């Protein structure tokens, strides 16, 4: 088992992640209510505002969700006039999701405090610290993904 000091340090890291997530959700929820979109829709709007257009597969990877879930999200956003689907000029089999003018207006009027606060905090860090943090978080995300896969595999075996 871990020595007590290391266990305490790990608990502090986990508590920090939970705090950041909870505070981000609280701030985003209040903005979502103000502009009339769901938190997931707001995430998509902010992603597309930064990136311009994504395929559903790319969107699914960035939202860490399955393509079937993304299809439902995009369908509802198309119905609400927030996004549109456009066929790729390079490959007619590929469809990209892009903000409509209405979606872009929401992106401009929303004060997405969690994104802005995190962006300012990250900008205050040295570039080398940013790169190191990114590398560590990517590694952590990979480890979490592996743990989830392992857990899902165990559950399937028991079924």
Q: Keywords for this structure?
A:
159 residues, three-stranded antiparallel sheet, 74% helix, 8% strand, globular
Describe the structure.
The chain is mainly alpha-helical and 159 residues long. It has seven helices and three strands, in the order ααβααββααα. The protein has helices spanning 4-35, 39-51, 56-63, 67-79, 101-109, 113-123, 127-158, and strands spanning 53-55, 83-87, 95-99. Strands 1-3-2 form a three-stranded antiparallel beta sheet. Strand 2 and strand 3 form a beta hairpin. Helix 3 crosses helix 4. 13% of the residues are buried. The mean pLDDT is 87.
Task: Summarize the helices and strands and which ones pair or pack.
Elements: H1 4-35, H2 39-51, E1 53-55, H3 56-63, H4 67-79, E2 83-87, E3 95-99, H5 101-109, H6 113-123, H7 127-158
Antiparallel strand pairs: 1-3, 2-3
Helix pairs in contact: 2-5, 3-4
What is the succession of H and E elements?
A: HHEHHEEHHH
The total of helices stands at: 7
Instruction: Report the portion of residues in β strands.
Output: 5-15%
| Strand adjacency order, main sheet | 1-3-2
How can the largest sheet be summarized? 3 strands, antiparallel
Query: Could you tell me how far the N terminus lies from the C terminus, measured between alpha carbons in angstroms?
Result: 30 Å
Strand pairing plus helix content: what structural class?
Answer: mainly alpha
Q: Which percent range fits the helix content?
A: over 70%
Q: State mean pLDDT (0 to 100 scale).
A: 87
Low-pLDDT residue spans:
none
Number of strands: 3
Task: Name the overall outline.
Answer: globular
Radius of gyration: 19 Å
